Amino acid sequence: MPTQAQTASQMIDIAAMPVEDAVERVIDHAVTLQASDLFILANEDFYAISVRHLGIIRPVSIVGKDLGKQFTQHIKANAAMDVAEHRHPADGRWIYERPADDDEDGDSEDTAVVDLRLSTIPTLHGEDMVIRLLSRDFGLYAMNELGFADDELASVQMMLDSPGGLILCCGPTGSGKTATLYAALRHLHDGTRKINTIEDPIEFAIEGFRQSQINHQIDLTFAHLLKGVLRQSPDIIMIGEIRDTETATTAVRAANSGHLVLSTIHAPVAAAAIESMRSLGVNDHFLATALRGVVSQRLVRTLDPDRRVEYDISHAPEIFEPIQKLLKPGEGKTFYAPGAGEGHSGYNGRTGVYEVMAMTSKLRDLVAKGADTGAIRDQALSDGMRDFKSNALLKVARGVTAIEEVFRVIPAEYLDE
Known about the structure:
Blueprint: H1 19-33, E1 37-42, E2 46-53, E3 56-64, H2 65-78, E4 90-99, E5 111-123, E6 126-135, H3 150-160, E7 165-170, H4 177-188, E8 195-199, E9 210-213, H5 222-230, E10 236-239, H6 245-256, E11 260-265, H7 272-279, H8 284-290, E12 291-303, E13 309-312, E14 334-337, E15 347-358, H9 361-368, H10 373-382, H11 388-397, H12 403-409, H13 412-415
Parallel strand pairs: 7-11, 7-12, 8-9, 8-10, 10-11
Antiparallel strand pairs: 1-2, 1-6, 2-3, 4-5, 5-6, 12-15, 13-14
Helix pairs in contact: 1-2, 5-6, 6-8, 8-9, 9-10
């Protein structure tokens, strides 16, 4: 997934600024970096401010206790949160506007909107705040920008072209599942079908989608909203996450009744999504008939092509032996490493590494018979699915990412297979 950020986070000095200016400086800094999260964390004698940039937490500033408290209070006030409440976790939202360009003169009359989703929690030394940054100017991708290999992209698009059924996207938190779902919905959005989404929260408002958000305070859950959405005559339903029995069984029932249902579920690999659904009480036979496929994913940082360092490994061809038949002429003879420097990590974006498990008749039989994850995974590989190891090695061989980044993101057990 491409990003415009060119430099890694650097420390900034806000200690002498008025609190309003300090808050603006930090948020603008985080947005310019295209950070996904901003952290304001209370310590015994200071507040630490940092960002998550390309999946890595990087320090931004250190401020005293007094300024740190004013900082969080100012943000809470702008998010219409109770500034007097520090004893309980709380959530809020601030629609933040900033100049649309990076002109230092600030003469532009255009503004860019950033949706800030706030979460606070009491800790030993004070109130911690985490802010999710959702810029309306970036964050939505086309299917061909996510990092799928050509054959995997074709396989996913075949799943999406199904008239009905269930498509699952799995992976840990922060692995880009929501971005994949949004890209899939944009691919499907041709004006001929009604698309309803159920989200927590709604990350991007998209014209033409009927988007609904769950609300725990009034017990408006995924399951509750899904029942309502099914009465709205949808063609396509996106469920932000399947996390309970009622949502899982209703989603499968909807998929078997002709709706195309897209959702996420937590599972380490594609085949394990079957067991995750079973653990929520879904009937094996109904799941086997409903499921069209599973996409499992991780995000790795991409090397800056202008800075990467090249290493000749033509003397060790065995490194890429598992994917030799997938390599193009000239590939597999070079490793690349990040060319880090002052103010630069050597990486300039992120891309997905995937497992795409399209359902086949043999896989359906195994799921219906209650086969375990190992048997399902073996059959999927036999049917042509590439595992994380193969796809990660492909990106390394092509200079997209570095081998150390692969080991940082993908558990070693899936790389040793």
